[in-house]
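new request in #modeling-help
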Amino acid sequence: MTEQFVDQRELTGADANRSVWASLRSRPLFWICAVALGLLAVIAIMPGTLAGLLSTSDPRACELSLSVKPPSAAHPFGTDIQGCDILANVFYGARTSLLIGFVATALCAIVALVLGTSAGYYGGLADRIISRLTDVFLGFPFLLGAIVVLNSVATRSALIVALVLALFTWPTLARLVRSSVRSVRESEFVHAASAVGMTDGRILREHVVPNSLGPVLAIVTTMVGNVIVAESTLTFLGVGLRTPSISWGLQLATAQSYFQTAPHLLLYPGLFLTLTVLSLITLGDILRDALDPKGRK
Amino acid sequence: MRTLRFSIVAALTVAVTLSACSSGGSGEGDRSISVGVTDPTTLVPARQSVAFDFSAAVWSPLTFVRADGKIDYIQAESIESDDSVTWTVTLRDGWTFHDGTPVNAQSYIDSWNAAAYGPNAFENAGQLANIVGFDDLNPEKGKPSTTEMSGLQLVDDLTFKVELKDADSQFPLQVSQAQTAMFPMPESAMKDFDAYTKHPVGNGPFEMDGDYTENQPFTVTANNDYAGDDPTVDSITFKPYTDLSTAYTDVRAGNLDVASVPPNRLPQSEADFGDSLYTFEAPGISFLGLPLWDERYKDVKVRQAISMAIDRDSINDVIYGGQFVPADAFTPSIEPGTPDGLCGDYCKYDPKSAKKLLDEAGGFDGAMEIYYPGGGGDDDLYNAIANNLRQSLGIDVTARPSADWAEFLDNRTAEKVDGPFFSRWGALYPSQQATLRPLFVENGGCANCVPWYTDEVTAAIRKADKDDDGTGEAYADVQDLLLEDFPAPPLFFETYSYVTSDKIADLPTSPVGNPQLTKVKLTD
């Protein structure tokens, strides 16, 4: 009995995965986003080496006499107010932004998976407690909450900022996981698995969680983009990262005073930020379309 | 009928056009100006910290220091002393407050006692600290047993004597235009300071029009009964701005007549305003404070090396649009007798010699973190200095802002800073004393701005206070002592910059660096 059910499920699972991949593969937009993100990932992994190929590899090698120079051969993106190479700074900024985006989202996803699955699968008291907890967190205006928390911590490293962002973003995801788990829990194969005496742990691991992940994955991708924007916003407002950190938000904050006379200070970090976030959000959208059987053509 | 209707319409059109002409813009006879300010929150002169321009319009000081350093007597007829300890102040006869009560010697004695009275906790009380009896009004613990300073004595209706703790030749400067704690208040003020801060009554060329409400514009109008020189404008409106960049933009758009230039607009201000940009030499000076409680900064060569590694000229050009002056002495050069060029090679950018000096001193262990107050627009300056030091001296230098001004001040006062830090002092009267005393005498006013207090320097400042004849040359010895020990690298002599709308033809200043709004010349 058990074997039969499991086999049948795995077959449909593999089938579904195959058709998702086919749907993604056929969309040019998917490839554009994937390539853009791939490039950004390479830049974030080795910003120094890549910047070195194009201009200078040290973002802190600055010459005041070269302050606010427009793009040239030696400095393809020009120089900022301190005479530092903007290209090197934007590349190092990519590392910080992506790091914060992925760390915050990963933390958020772990918390959301654990809490959302418990609430959705067990229901009852656990569901009520966890649901109220997410309501409480959703009640905080996100920016205000982040500003208050960030203003009360002594140091604001990339990790601290990622933690704070995760603190305020997990509830949305937890709700999603919960509803997704609830619908899977009612499926026949879960009932069957339960009927044949599989432990809760095994049912969750092998049936419930893998089948609830689809919609979560799409939202998580979008969320990385949102977190990167949130970090830049907070930094721009002066409550996120601080010097000597290198981040797009900081570069934008400095550039705002000078952008009338030197627009390129604002242009390049802004362009990279927009491209990154746009790629992530579009990718999330495409994933959601592909994963949602009703929305699929 | 048809022609009648047409002519009515025509007449109306003409009337509308005419009235639009007369009400629009600065027609003839409109002699009012508007000034962008930071919201003052309090207007009591002994408490204000950002209402200097308002105070200068509503009050007249005893003395006024002119650009050439000479003293004009305004409310005072004379201020004299034989020994620099006991000063006799004689007031001009016939001057009144805006409420009609006379300005007499008793007004000054009452006002100064109220300003110095500890429980009032007036922010500018320190300006009166050298008067005998000040300590009785500010005991270390508990309530003072008296409400009057014994050093103030009434002689007659227009004359009073001031006895100082230490001989001080600079006293006539200490009662000049920016020392607002020295301004007189009428009897009605002492009864109710809460009412007084909403509607201050002074003895100056302008009187308050209506009441002051926080974050609302407030206006002063020319006082016809003023006994001194008539002002050149009829009224001044002070408009509070939370962001001075907005005020700057408003002046450009013609919605505001005068605004100070925020640091981040300095580089573009000349291109934006041309002749309507006024850069006033001011008695402000900035230093790179050094944590002298840290062993690594004990060797004078380390301090000199740090000074020589800073490219003041380039920083001035890039960050201040060339409007500051690289410092070459320990007091701003507008203060009479300042030995310009004293600092010599130690204040000139010379990375090679700097590195050599540092090596002679045995190098520098570990990283260096410059600490400065966040949110004040100083990020570019300290990042530039960090870059300079890192590249000239090979030390790993970064710049870190504090969360806010309060955090910075707490840490600096408690000596909890382990790297170079922000340090500046804006003096309120043009005398070297006004810079040296707060910075280099313990409890002088700027705690730990330069954490290096020696008996030798304190004694030298005291001696100069006593001996100076008005030229400031007596302070030369103090500066020599400072150069020898080089406790902190001087960075810039500051200027205060203002921009004006087309309505203003000339904006005069005084040696405290502020505009003189009562003498503004309007475009005719």
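bot summary: The two ends of chain A are 35 Å apart (CA to CA).
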